[in-house]
Amino acid sequence: MVFVPDLGVDAVQTCSKCHALSPDSAKVCQSCQADLREFSTTAMALKRIRANSRASAIHLAVPLNACPACRAVEGTYPKDQVPALPVEGCSEPNGCQGFYEPLLDEIYP
Ligand SMILES: [Zn+2]
Ligand SMILES: [Zn+2]
User: Fold this and answer.
1) Which ligand is nearest to the CA of 70?
2) Backbone phi, then psi, for 27, in 5-degree steps?
3) How far is the CA of 90 from the centre of ligand 1 (A)?
4) How many angstroms separate the alpha carbon of residue 54 from the centre of ligand 2?
5) Per-residue model confidence as pLDDT tens digits over 75-103
6) What pLDDT sits at residue 105?
7) Cα 98 to middle of ligand 2, angstroms
8) Which of 2, 7, 80, 83 has its CA 20 to 30 A from that of 58?
């Protein structure tokens, strides 16, 4: 039995402006109409990683029990070539659980 840590990733998209939840299929926040491709919490995380000069690449991580569409895109990408979240074609009943992680350059003092 493998436990996947709860990283605070919602099963649906979370608006970074008003914190309302919207389904993965929504293009805009159902509460404040913000563009979720720009302002979902995952999109904001991606922006932060891209802006981090120590991040040399981005890892798209998915849970061990993720659907085939998510497993197919799991991997490490150049900062400007990461697939968007939620994963297109994701078939999980509770919504896509993919998230971004920075790959940081080691700093040798
Ligand atoms: Zn909103
Ligand atoms: Zn999926």
Assistant:
1) 2
2) -95, -30
3) 22
4) 29
5) 999 999 999 999 999 998 888 999 999 99
6) 84
7) 7
8) 2
**CA trace torsion 21, 88, 98, 15 (10° rounding):** -20
- Give Cα separations from 54 to 4, 6, 43, 45, 81 (angstroms): 27, 25, 19, 15, 17
Centre of ligand 2 from the C-alpha of residue 64, in Å: 11
pTM over 0.85: no
Nearest bound ligand to the CA of residue 73: 2
- For 98, what's the count of Cα atoms within 13 Å in the CB-facing half-sphere? 30
- Main-chain phi, psi angles of 105, to 5 degrees: -65, 135
Q: Judge whether residue 9 has pLDDT over 50.
A: no
For the stretch 41-67, pLDDT in tens is 999 999 999 999 999 999 999 999 999
